[in-house]
# Entry
Amino acid sequence: MKSTALQERRERTRVLTSVFAANTIRSNSIEYYSHYERIICMKKIISLLMVAFMAVSMTACAGKIATAEEDTRPLGEMRGISAAELIAEMGAGWNLGNTLDAEGGETAWGNPITTQEMIDEVYKAGFNTIRIPTTWDGHMGEAPDYTVDSEWLDRVEEVVGYALKNNMYVILNTHHEDNWVKPQYDELDDVKEQLSALWTQVAERFSDYGDHLIFEGLNEPRIKGGASEWDGGTEEGRDCLNQLNDTFVKAVRATGGNNETRTLLISFAAQAAPVGIENLTVPDDKYVGVSIHAYTPYCFTYEPVGLEYNALYFDKSCASEIERLFSNLDETFISQGIPVIITEYGAVSKKLDKDQETTNVDEVAKWTSCYVSTAEKYGIPCVWWDNGYYTSGNELFGIFNRNELSWYTPEIVKAIMDSLPK
# Structure
Protein backbone atom coordinates (compact mmCIF):
# COMPACT_ATOMS: atom_id res chain seq x y z
CA MET A 1 0.00 0.00 0.00
CA LYS A 2 2.76 2.34 1.03
CA SER A 3 4.79 1.43 -2.01
CA THR A 4 1.84 1.99 -4.27
CA ALA A 5 1.06 5.40 -2.78
CA LEU A 6 4.66 6.45 -3.10
CA GLN A 7 4.76 5.39 -6.70
CA GLU A 8 1.59 7.36 -7.43
CA ARG A 9 3.04 10.49 -5.83
CA ARG A 10 6.23 10.11 -7.83
CA GLU A 11 4.20 9.66 -11.03
CA ARG A 12 2.11 12.76 -10.30
CA THR A 13 5.31 14.72 -9.61
CA ARG A 14 6.83 13.51 -12.85
CA VAL A 15 3.74 14.44 -14.79
CA LEU A 16 3.49 17.82 -13.16
CA THR A 17 7.18 18.41 -13.78
CA SER A 18 6.78 17.42 -17.39
CA VAL A 19 3.74 19.64 -17.76
CA PHE A 20 5.53 22.52 -16.10
CA ALA A 21 8.55 22.00 -18.29
CA ALA A 22 6.39 21.78 -21.37
CA ASN A 23 4.51 24.89 -20.37
CA THR A 24 7.75 26.68 -19.67
CA ILE A 25 9.17 25.65 -23.01
CA ARG A 26 5.92 26.61 -24.70
CA SER A 27 5.83 29.92 -22.88
CA ASN A 28 9.44 30.60 -23.74
CA SER A 29 8.77 29.63 -27.35
CA ILE A 30 5.75 31.86 -27.53
CA GLU A 31 7.70 34.67 -25.96
CA TYR A 32 10.60 34.00 -28.31
CA TYR A 33 8.43 33.87 -31.38
CA SER A 34 6.50 36.97 -30.29
CA HIS A 35 9.75 38.83 -29.87
CA TYR A 36 10.94 37.59 -33.27
CA GLU A 37 7.70 38.59 -34.92
CA ARG A 38 7.93 42.03 -33.36
CA ILE A 39 11.43 42.44 -34.80
CA ILE A 40 10.23 41.29 -38.23
CA CYS A 41 7.24 43.61 -38.02
CA MET A 42 9.38 46.57 -37.01
CA LYS A 43 11.76 45.84 -39.86
CA LYS A 44 8.84 45.76 -42.26
CA ILE A 45 7.53 49.07 -40.91
CA ILE A 46 10.97 50.64 -41.18
CA SER A 47 11.32 49.31 -44.71
CA LEU A 48 7.91 50.69 -45.68
CA LEU A 49 8.74 54.04 -44.16
CA MET A 50 12.03 54.15 -46.03
CA VAL A 51 10.28 53.22 -49.28
CA ALA A 52 7.66 55.89 -48.67
CA PHE A 53 10.31 58.48 -47.85
CA MET A 54 12.27 57.59 -50.95
CA ALA A 55 9.11 57.75 -53.04
CA VAL A 56 8.22 61.20 -51.70
CA SER A 57 11.79 62.38 -52.21
CA MET A 58 11.91 61.04 -55.73
CA THR A 59 8.51 62.58 -56.50
CA ALA A 60 9.68 65.93 -55.18
CA CYS A 61 12.89 65.74 -57.18
CA ALA A 62 11.00 64.62 -60.24
CA GLY A 63 8.60 67.50 -59.72
CA LYS A 64 11.48 69.96 -59.60
CA ILE A 65 13.06 68.45 -62.68
CA ALA A 66 9.72 68.39 -64.50
CA THR A 67 9.08 72.00 -63.56
CA ALA A 68 12.51 73.02 -64.81
CA GLU A 69 11.98 71.05 -68.01
CA GLU A 70 8.48 72.38 -68.58
CA ASP A 71 9.40 76.04 -68.08
CA THR A 72 10.89 76.57 -71.50
CA ARG A 73 9.69 80.16 -71.76
CA PRO A 74 12.25 82.53 -73.32
CA LEU A 75 12.32 84.76 -70.26
CA GLY A 76 15.54 86.66 -70.87
CA GLU A 77 17.08 88.90 -68.24
CA MET A 78 16.16 92.15 -66.57
CA ARG A 79 19.28 94.31 -66.77
CA GLY A 80 17.92 97.36 -64.98
CA ILE A 81 18.74 99.69 -67.88
CA SER A 82 16.70 102.84 -68.49
CA ALA A 83 14.02 103.19 -71.15
CA ALA A 84 16.36 105.46 -73.12
CA GLU A 85 19.10 102.83 -73.13
CA LEU A 86 16.72 100.03 -74.06
CA ILE A 87 14.91 101.93 -76.82
CA ALA A 88 18.30 102.79 -78.34
CA GLU A 89 18.85 99.05 -78.86
CA MET A 90 15.57 98.26 -80.59
CA GLY A 91 16.41 98.89 -84.26
CA ALA A 92 13.87 98.27 -87.02
CA GLY A 93 10.37 97.23 -85.98
CA TRP A 94 7.33 95.53 -87.50
CA ASN A 95 3.69 95.34 -86.37
CA LEU A 96 1.72 92.09 -86.29
CA GLY A 97 -1.36 94.12 -87.17
CA ASN A 98 -4.99 93.02 -87.56
CA THR A 99 -4.32 89.75 -85.78
CA LEU A 100 -4.50 89.55 -81.97
CA ASP A 101 -6.10 92.97 -82.11
CA ALA A 102 -8.86 91.75 -84.44
CA GLU A 103 -12.28 91.98 -82.85
CA GLY A 104 -13.79 88.52 -83.05
CA GLY A 105 -10.61 86.49 -82.88
CA GLU A 106 -7.12 86.12 -84.31
CA THR A 107 -8.23 85.34 -87.88
CA ALA A 108 -11.43 87.41 -87.91
CA TRP A 109 -9.94 90.13 -90.12
CA GLY A 110 -8.50 87.85 -92.76
CA ASN A 111 -4.99 87.11 -91.53
CA PRO A 112 -3.75 83.56 -90.84
CA ILE A 113 -2.90 82.11 -87.45
CA THR A 114 0.47 83.44 -86.31
CA THR A 115 3.25 80.85 -86.26
CA GLN A 116 6.84 80.63 -85.11
CA GLU A 117 7.96 80.32 -88.74
CA MET A 118 6.21 83.58 -89.58
CA ILE A 119 8.03 85.52 -86.89
CA ASP A 120 11.31 83.81 -87.79
CA GLU A 121 11.05 85.22 -91.33
CA VAL A 122 10.42 88.72 -90.02
CA TYR A 123 13.51 88.42 -87.85
CA LYS A 124 15.62 87.06 -90.71
CA ALA A 125 14.74 90.12 -92.80
CA GLY A 126 16.47 92.31 -90.20
CA PHE A 127 13.61 93.39 -87.93
CA ASN A 128 14.71 93.39 -84.30
CA THR A 129 11.46 94.59 -82.74
CA ILE A 130 7.90 93.36 -83.06
CA ARG A 131 4.81 95.09 -81.77
CA ILE A 132 1.92 92.77 -80.97
CA PRO A 133 -1.30 94.81 -80.96
CA THR A 134 -3.73 93.00 -78.67
CA THR A 135 -7.40 93.67 -78.01
CA TRP A 136 -8.58 92.58 -74.57
CA ASP A 137 -12.17 93.76 -74.90
CA GLY A 138 -14.25 90.64 -75.36
CA HIS A 139 -11.80 88.59 -73.31
CA MET A 140 -12.53 90.15 -69.93
CA GLY A 141 -15.14 89.41 -67.31
CA GLU A 142 -17.43 91.84 -65.55
CA ALA A 143 -16.70 94.22 -62.69
CA PRO A 144 -15.25 94.28 -60.15
CA ASP A 145 -12.53 91.76 -61.06
CA TYR A 146 -12.54 92.11 -64.87
CA THR A 147 -10.91 88.68 -65.05
CA VAL A 148 -9.03 88.08 -68.30
CA ASP A 149 -9.78 84.79 -70.06
CA SER A 150 -6.87 82.44 -69.27
CA GLU A 151 -6.92 80.86 -72.75
CA TRP A 152 -6.52 84.28 -74.34
CA LEU A 153 -3.63 85.11 -72.02
CA ASP A 154 -2.03 81.78 -72.92
CA ARG A 155 -2.28 82.53 -76.64
CA VAL A 156 -0.89 86.04 -76.23
CA GLU A 157 2.02 84.66 -74.22
CA GLU A 158 2.65 82.02 -76.89
CA VAL A 159 2.92 84.63 -79.65
CA VAL A 160 5.12 86.84 -77.47
CA GLY A 161 7.35 83.81 -77.05
CA TYR A 162 7.74 83.40 -80.82
CA ALA A 163 9.54 86.74 -80.96
CA LEU A 164 11.49 86.39 -77.73
CA LYS A 165 12.91 83.08 -78.94
CA ASN A 166 14.67 85.17 -81.59
CA ASN A 167 15.82 87.57 -78.86
CA MET A 168 13.66 90.28 -80.40
CA TYR A 169 12.13 93.17 -78.48
CA VAL A 170 8.38 92.84 -78.01
CA ILE A 171 5.87 95.63 -77.46
CA LEU A 172 2.61 94.35 -75.97
CA ASN A 173 -0.31 96.74 -75.73
CA THR A 174 -4.05 97.24 -75.32
CA HIS A 175 -5.41 98.04 -78.77
CA HIS A 176 -9.07 98.30 -79.80
CA GLU A 177 -10.51 99.19 -76.41
CA ASP A 178 -12.58 102.14 -77.68
CA ASN A 179 -15.79 100.68 -76.27
CA TRP A 180 -14.64 101.25 -72.72
CA VAL A 181 -11.42 103.34 -72.72
CA LYS A 182 -12.86 106.80 -73.10
CA PRO A 183 -10.76 109.84 -72.15
CA GLN A 184 -13.61 111.88 -70.70
CA TYR A 185 -14.66 112.89 -67.21
CA ASP A 186 -17.92 110.95 -67.38
CA GLU A 187 -17.30 107.52 -65.79
CA LEU A 188 -13.52 108.07 -65.81
CA ASP A 189 -13.14 106.36 -62.42
CA ASP A 190 -14.74 103.21 -63.82
CA VAL A 191 -12.36 103.26 -66.77
CA LYS A 192 -9.38 103.65 -64.44
CA GLU A 193 -10.56 100.71 -62.33
CA GLN A 194 -10.88 98.44 -65.35
CA LEU A 195 -7.61 99.59 -66.91
CA SER A 196 -5.79 98.99 -63.62
CA ALA A 197 -7.33 95.51 -63.28
CA LEU A 198 -6.36 94.62 -66.85
CA TRP A 199 -2.75 95.75 -66.61
CA THR A 200 -2.34 94.17 -63.18
CA GLN A 201 -3.27 90.79 -64.65
CA VAL A 202 -1.11 91.21 -67.76
CA ALA A 203 1.86 92.39 -65.69
CA GLU A 204 1.51 89.48 -63.27
CA ARG A 205 1.35 86.95 -66.11
CA PHE A 206 4.55 88.31 -67.67
CA SER A 207 6.33 89.21 -64.43
CA ASP A 208 9.17 86.73 -64.97
CA TYR A 209 10.11 88.06 -68.40
CA GLY A 210 13.17 90.21 -68.94
CA ASP A 211 13.52 93.70 -70.36
CA HIS A 212 13.01 92.68 -74.00
CA LEU A 213 9.30 92.70 -73.19
CA ILE A 214 7.82 96.21 -73.16
CA PHE A 215 4.30 97.28 -72.21
CA GLU A 216 2.41 100.01 -74.06
CA GLY A 217 -0.55 101.20 -72.03
CA LEU A 218 -2.96 102.55 -74.64
CA ASN A 219 -3.46 102.74 -78.38
CA GLU A 220 -4.71 105.98 -79.95
CA PRO A 221 -7.01 106.81 -77.00
CA ARG A 222 -9.73 109.18 -78.18
CA ILE A 223 -13.44 109.80 -78.33
CA LYS A 224 -14.62 108.39 -81.65
CA GLY A 225 -16.24 111.13 -83.66
CA GLY A 226 -15.36 113.67 -80.99
CA ALA A 227 -13.96 117.16 -81.44
CA SER A 228 -10.38 117.16 -82.77
CA GLU A 229 -10.37 113.35 -82.68
CA TRP A 230 -7.24 113.14 -84.86
CA ASP A 231 -5.82 116.55 -84.03
CA GLY A 232 -4.77 116.31 -80.39
CA GLY A 233 -8.19 115.98 -78.82
CA THR A 234 -9.84 118.39 -76.38
CA GLU A 235 -8.47 119.84 -73.16
CA GLU A 236 -10.70 117.47 -71.18
CA GLY A 237 -9.56 114.53 -73.25
CA ARG A 238 -5.89 115.37 -72.79
CA ASP A 239 -6.32 115.70 -69.02
CA CYS A 240 -8.15 112.36 -68.82
CA LEU A 241 -5.48 110.73 -70.96
CA ASN A 242 -2.75 111.88 -68.58
CA GLN A 243 -4.71 110.31 -65.73
CA LEU A 244 -5.12 107.04 -67.64
CA ASN A 245 -1.42 106.91 -68.43
CA ASP A 246 -0.71 107.39 -64.73
CA THR A 247 -3.12 104.57 -63.87
CA PHE A 248 -1.36 102.23 -66.28
CA VAL A 249 2.13 102.97 -64.95
CA LYS A 250 1.11 102.62 -61.30
CA ALA A 251 -0.76 99.35 -61.93
CA VAL A 252 2.26 97.72 -63.58
CA ARG A 253 4.78 99.04 -61.06
CA ALA A 254 2.64 97.81 -58.14
CA THR A 255 3.08 94.19 -59.25
CA GLY A 256 6.76 94.42 -58.27
CA GLY A 257 9.65 92.23 -59.38
CA ASN A 258 10.82 92.78 -62.94
CA ASN A 259 7.88 95.10 -63.55
CA GLU A 260 9.42 97.70 -61.27
CA THR A 261 12.03 98.45 -63.92
CA ARG A 262 10.26 97.28 -67.08
CA THR A 263 10.15 99.83 -69.90
CA LEU A 264 6.64 101.22 -70.25
CA LEU A 265 5.31 103.35 -73.10
CA ILE A 266 2.67 106.01 -72.60
CA SER A 267 0.57 107.50 -75.39
CA PHE A 268 -1.12 110.73 -76.32
CA ALA A 269 -4.31 111.51 -78.21
CA ALA A 270 -4.08 109.57 -81.48
CA GLN A 271 -1.87 111.26 -84.10
CA ALA A 272 1.23 113.35 -83.47
CA ALA A 273 -0.52 116.72 -83.35
CA PRO A 274 1.61 119.38 -81.61
CA VAL A 275 -1.10 120.25 -79.07
CA GLY A 276 -1.34 116.62 -78.02
CA ILE A 277 2.41 116.16 -77.75
CA GLU A 278 2.99 119.37 -75.82
CA ASN A 279 0.32 118.57 -73.21
CA LEU A 280 1.41 115.03 -72.47
CA THR A 281 2.48 114.52 -68.85
CA VAL A 282 5.42 112.13 -68.61
CA PRO A 283 5.96 110.48 -65.19
CA ASP A 284 9.24 111.05 -63.36
CA ASP A 285 10.34 107.49 -64.09
CA LYS A 286 13.49 106.66 -66.04
CA TYR A 287 11.86 103.45 -67.26
CA VAL A 288 9.09 105.26 -69.14
CA GLY A 289 9.15 106.30 -72.79
CA VAL A 290 6.68 107.88 -75.21
CA SER A 291 4.86 106.03 -77.99
CA ILE A 292 4.05 108.04 -81.14
CA HIS A 293 1.96 107.26 -84.23
CA ALA A 294 2.90 109.37 -87.22
CA TYR A 295 1.78 108.73 -90.79
CA THR A 296 3.43 111.83 -92.20
CA PRO A 297 2.43 113.41 -94.51
CA TYR A 298 -1.11 112.05 -94.57
CA CYS A 299 -1.67 112.96 -98.22
CA PHE A 300 1.11 110.53 -99.19
CA THR A 301 0.81 107.78 -96.60
CA TYR A 302 -2.96 107.28 -96.90
CA GLU A 303 -5.43 107.23 -99.78
CA PRO A 304 -7.44 110.35 -98.95
CA VAL A 305 -10.68 111.19 -100.67
CA GLY A 306 -10.16 113.70 -103.49
CA LEU A 307 -7.44 113.35 -106.09
CA GLU A 308 -6.23 116.91 -105.57
CA TYR A 309 -5.15 115.91 -102.07
CA ASN A 310 -3.80 112.47 -102.93
CA ALA A 311 0.00 112.52 -103.29
CA LEU A 312 1.34 109.61 -105.34
CA TYR A 313 4.98 110.70 -105.52
CA PHE A 314 7.52 111.49 -102.84
CA ASP A 315 8.93 115.02 -103.10
CA LYS A 316 10.63 117.77 -101.09
CA SER A 317 7.41 118.81 -99.42
CA CYS A 318 7.07 115.29 -97.99
CA ALA A 319 10.65 115.43 -96.75
CA SER A 320 10.04 118.83 -95.12
CA GLU A 321 7.02 117.53 -93.18
CA ILE A 322 8.99 114.55 -91.98
CA GLU A 323 11.82 116.76 -90.74
CA ARG A 324 9.32 119.04 -89.00
CA LEU A 325 7.74 116.06 -87.21
CA PHE A 326 10.99 114.73 -85.79
CA SER A 327 12.35 118.16 -84.95
CA ASN A 328 9.24 118.78 -82.85
CA LEU A 329 9.61 115.39 -81.10
CA ASP A 330 13.23 116.18 -80.38
CA GLU A 331 12.43 119.57 -78.90
CA THR A 332 9.58 118.27 -76.74
CA PHE A 333 11.00 114.96 -75.58
CA ILE A 334 14.42 113.80 -76.77
CA SER A 335 16.25 116.98 -75.75
CA GLN A 336 14.59 116.67 -72.33
CA GLY A 337 15.93 113.15 -71.83
CA ILE A 338 12.61 111.45 -72.62
CA PRO A 339 12.95 108.58 -75.11
CA VAL A 340 10.53 108.22 -78.01
CA ILE A 341 9.59 105.35 -80.31
CA ILE A 342 7.34 105.50 -83.37
CA THR A 343 5.14 102.46 -82.77
CA GLU A 344 3.18 102.99 -85.99
CA TYR A 345 4.26 104.43 -89.33
CA GLY A 346 3.92 103.40 -92.95
CA ALA A 347 2.51 104.32 -96.34
CA VAL A 348 -0.13 102.47 -98.36
CA SER A 349 0.49 101.14 -101.83
CA LYS A 350 -1.31 103.23 -104.45
CA LYS A 351 -2.12 102.49 -108.08
CA LEU A 352 -0.44 104.72 -110.66
CA ASP A 353 -2.40 103.74 -113.77
CA LYS A 354 -6.01 103.23 -114.79
CA ASP A 355 -5.48 99.49 -115.22
CA GLN A 356 -4.53 99.27 -111.54
CA GLU A 357 -1.42 97.24 -112.34
CA THR A 358 1.44 99.56 -111.42
CA THR A 359 1.88 100.75 -107.84
CA ASN A 360 3.97 103.54 -106.38
CA VAL A 361 6.17 101.11 -104.42
CA ASP A 362 9.35 102.87 -105.58
CA GLU A 363 7.97 106.16 -104.27
CA VAL A 364 7.08 104.53 -100.98
CA ALA A 365 10.64 103.19 -100.77
CA LYS A 366 11.96 106.75 -101.19
CA TRP A 367 9.58 108.00 -98.51
CA THR A 368 10.65 105.15 -96.21
CA SER A 369 14.33 105.96 -96.64
CA CYS A 370 13.72 109.60 -95.75
CA TYR A 371 11.45 108.78 -92.81
CA VAL A 372 13.63 106.14 -91.16
CA SER A 373 16.94 107.93 -91.72
CA THR A 374 15.50 111.15 -90.26
CA ALA A 375 14.17 109.25 -87.25
CA GLU A 376 17.55 107.59 -86.83
CA LYS A 377 19.23 110.99 -86.81
CA TYR A 378 17.22 111.87 -83.70
CA GLY A 379 17.63 108.42 -82.10
CA ILE A 380 14.02 107.33 -82.62
CA PRO A 381 13.31 103.73 -83.71
CA CYS A 382 10.29 103.06 -85.92
CA VAL A 383 7.83 100.14 -86.12
CA TRP A 384 6.13 99.65 -89.50
CA TRP A 385 2.35 99.16 -89.38
CA ASP A 386 1.63 95.95 -91.31
CA ASN A 387 -2.04 94.95 -91.32
CA GLY A 388 -1.50 92.09 -93.77
CA TYR A 389 -3.37 93.81 -96.61
CA TYR A 390 -1.52 94.42 -99.86
CA THR A 391 -3.85 93.96 -102.84
CA SER A 392 -7.24 94.16 -101.14
CA GLY A 393 -8.71 95.21 -97.84
CA ASN A 394 -8.93 98.40 -95.83
CA GLU A 395 -5.70 100.46 -95.92
CA LEU A 396 -3.01 98.59 -97.85
CA PHE A 397 -0.08 98.74 -95.44
CA GLY A 398 0.94 95.12 -95.87
CA ILE A 399 4.55 94.40 -96.81
CA PHE A 400 4.86 90.78 -95.58
CA ASN A 401 2.93 87.85 -97.08
CA ARG A 402 2.14 85.80 -94.01
CA ASN A 403 0.70 82.90 -95.96
CA GLU A 404 3.69 82.45 -98.25
CA LEU A 405 6.31 83.69 -95.76
CA SER A 406 7.68 86.13 -98.30
CA TRP A 407 7.83 89.89 -98.78
CA TYR A 408 5.34 91.72 -100.99
CA THR A 409 7.65 94.71 -101.21
CA PRO A 410 11.31 93.82 -100.64
CA GLU A 411 12.12 97.33 -101.87
CA ILE A 412 10.58 98.79 -98.73
CA VAL A 413 12.33 96.31 -96.46
CA LYS A 414 15.63 97.20 -98.10
CA ALA A 415 14.91 100.92 -97.69
CA ILE A 416 14.33 100.38 -93.95
CA MET A 417 17.46 98.35 -93.40
CA ASP A 418 19.68 100.60 -95.53
CA SER A 419 18.59 103.61 -93.46
CA LEU A 420 19.94 102.14 -90.25
CA PRO A 421 23.59 102.12 -89.13
CA LYS A 422 25.47 98.97 -89.99
